[in-house]
């Protein structure tokens, strides 16, 4: 064993020793955590099938912990975007599942078809625009879309419900979805193993679950639609459309972007294309926001509380080695990376921004946008109501007419110059490399107890020690232990506290862990379809 291997092994062992000393638990607590599985509102996993095998020319004994974990993980291919993922969520807030918004369509018809909190299940490969029509009250053109392309694509989409959309990201007969609710949080994961893409969303609702429910129903469909328009635009720019009549057949043709990308990888990996995908995510959120606020305005006579309901948004789209991320609010995406060259330790790279008053940059922007007001921030909250500076929904801090719908102390006083909460998201693309191990997505409840570094170290150690374990569930278990310890309770005592009262000890917590690459790693949380 050469000196570099020895040094690397020492680095890894230092990481594990530090974590073990900080987070040791008793056997009784371990037994309790096994029983706590039934307390999770959501617990799902997915393991990609792989027909590839890779030889390793180093004895396992001589391999560092990092190498044992990551062997084969970084053998990227076009369809090898991720190996497996796990998701878990636990509630602390008491919330009613309001089923009457959108005339009951969301709660009574759509969500029951989408929710699958303990397994992935197959869904129709393409959404029906007719379903979006039922939810959409704005009925306008899609946001920031070229009108000529929009007219071609929208007419075809509306006349073909349901239809199969010719899209590299979203065309497949094997699309699977999992997700559900935990308190006011919602989580969603949609993947196509055939085409190697994954879309994950965490929607951290507040003042009710309606906004998060609306996102769970509409945002994925919106993303599909805007990616479809992106494909139409690329086809048009590359001369794949001729006359208007030819355009109709061109959209429905079997010539997909996947074929063009296979011929010319420069197109797929270009910054221009990735920027187009990020714009699709932005447009999808903006469309959902417009539709939601229009729905709120129509229904606020019966549900005036809807004007205060909102949600943070975290969306990740992974395809090949392209990782595209959008966030509004304070949920986070944290990348775990460990350079293969050099002696650097495991690193946590935050890929998202924190949009709250705790971020000095966000605080100063808010004050700068309202220079003549002395009461923008009161009691460390915007207008005394909210800490996040960017969010979905929360219409009463964006439009005066929605604020006027509230009565008494619920109404915001001196709403001089709205908006005070914004909807412009942070977007970023990252090119996954062989140094990148996994990505952890989490609502802010996770980061109330753990730093970014602690999160990636906990997952790293767990995946090393438990190659068939569930890292998302493990993170929540560790959080419960820490929350109980800080409250001078046992974890079992904490879990006996009913939701609502338990909010004093921890928030709703949602976690997704995505293992990158083609590693041959199985998960006990993986489900049979």
TrEMBL record:
<keyword id="KW-0460">Magnesium</keyword>
<dbReference type="InterPro" id="IPR036457">
    <property type="entry name" value="PPM-type-like_dom_sf"/>
</dbReference>
<keyword id="KW-0464">Manganese</keyword>
<keyword id="KW-0904">Protein phosphatase</keyword>
<keyword id="KW-0378">Hydrolase</keyword>
<dbReference type="InterPro" id="IPR015655">
    <property type="entry name" value="PP2C"/>
</dbReference>
<dbReference type="InterPro" id="IPR001932">
    <property type="entry name" value="PPM-type_phosphatase-like_dom"/>
</dbReference>
<comment type="similarity">
    <text>Belongs to the PP2C family.</text>
</comment>
<keyword id="KW-0479">Metal-binding</keyword>
<dbReference type="GO" id="GO:0004722">
    <property type="term" value="F:protein serine/threonine phosphatase activity"/>
</dbReference>
<protein>
    <recommendedName>
        <fullName>protein-serine/threonine phosphatase</fullName>
        <ecNumber>3.1.3.16</ecNumber>
    </recommendedName>
</protein>
<dbReference type="GO" id="GO:0046872">
    <property type="term" value="F:metal ion binding"/>
</dbReference>
<feature type="domain" description="PPM-type phosphatase">
    <location>
        <begin position="169"/>
        <end position="516"/>
    </location>
</feature>
<dbReference type="Pfam" id="PF00481">
    <property type="entry name" value="PP2C"/>
</dbReference>
